[in-house]
């Protein structure tokens, strides 16, 4: 795992991940994305449009996405829940740590 802290490198790395999403290179995307520090995963994810977020959901397991989901702000969490397939969302939320689940419940109300 590494942290993206050099602007030029970050820009290049982001470009390759976006290309992998665009053309459907699931394994290439997963390799690069899952190698990122969780903070960088979250930052990359929140900058995506809905179509690209949908591709991320398809490329990551619910367990992998849960790691990103827990770091998102409540508004973005609600957005994700609305976008996710019901079964994917249930699987992702089932194992959410109890303090995160309680926070999510209060934010959704």
Automatic annotation (TrEMBL):
It comes from the Bacteria. Residues 36-104 form the Magnesium transporter MgtE intracellular domain. It holds the Pfam family MgtE_N. This is Magnesium transporter MgtE intracellular domain-containing protein.
